[in-house]
Design a protein that fits this description.
Strand order of the largest sheet: 3-4-5-6-9-10-8-7
CATH superfamily: Sortase
CATH class: Mainly Beta
Helix content: 10-25%
Radius of gyration: 17 Å
CATH architecture: Beta Barrel
Order of helices and strands: HEEEEHEEEEEEH
Number of strands: 10
């Protein structure tokens, strides 16, 4: 009985209390990165160009693994949710501390598939509420240039081997994308890595840094001192 109680306490600490603590640390890291980006003090390895089709800035992918280059906001996941996005998907180096960007996928606002992943449980559980997303929910990605707002459209469950979802046209790797998509991924079900849960969103608008953050996150960013 004592062993059972100890195990329950350990699970409660690891997957509840520790997630709250680590999640708050990651939110703080995202807030600090937002301030750095606002002040123009980042030392990124990216190069920004302008998309001639719609005139928005598109950055190249960072060349350094675990380099933080963006922040993800999901208003429906709470006003304090501001998780840093770093280059790469290595578990211990990247995902245990950040949301990870698949290196071969596109960047925010770019035509194709901006694909990111995070833990469902433990290490801050950055994607814990992925299954709660509803049609039209906003996902906002902040970079040095401004904010890219995506609108949630749909989700699915796939096997871990279903890597074709990372293509510029998810599930159709032989095709070249023409849409600006965002894909978020985590493990499924809870307590397991047997499957992957995926959410898809489509690009909606770009807000230049000079204009201030989108209305959906304006109060949150202001409270963090990111204006």
């Amino acid at each position: 009985m004592t062993l059972g109680v100890v195990m329950l306490l350990f699970v409660g600490w690891k997957y509840w209390l520790n997630d709250l603590i680590v999640g708050e640390e990651q939110n703080q890291a995202g807030q600090e990165l937002s301030q750095v980006l606002a002040e123009g003090g980042e030392e990124a390895t990216t190069v920004t160009t302008t998309d001639p089709a719609i005139g928005i800035p598109i950055s190249s992918a960072p060349t350094v693994t675990n380099e933080r280059f963006a922040i993800l906001y999901v208003p429906t996941w709470g006003a304090d949710y501001a998780r840093p996005i770093a280059q790469g998907i290595e578990q211990h180096e990247v995902l245990d501390h950040n949301i990870g960007h698949y290196p071969d996928s596109q960047m925010p606002g770019e035509v194709g598939n901006f694909a990111i992943a995070g833990h469902r449980l433990a290490y801050g559980a950055s994607m814990q509420k992925i299954h709660e997303l509803q049609l039209g929910d906003e996902l906002v990605v902040e970079t040095a240039d401004g904010w890219y707002t995506y609108s949630y459209r749909s989700g699915e469950y796939v096997a871990p081997t279903q890597v074709d979802v990372l293509g510029s046209v998810p599930r159709y790797p032989e095709q070249t994308g023409t849409d600006r998509l965002m894909m978020i991924m985590s493990c499924n079900p809870f307590w397991s890595t047997a499957e992957r849960i995926i959410g898809y969103a489509v690009f909606d608008t770009f807000t230049p840094r000079a204009d201030g953050p989108p209305a959906s996150i304006a109060a949150s960013v202001a409270s963090q001192g990111g204006l």
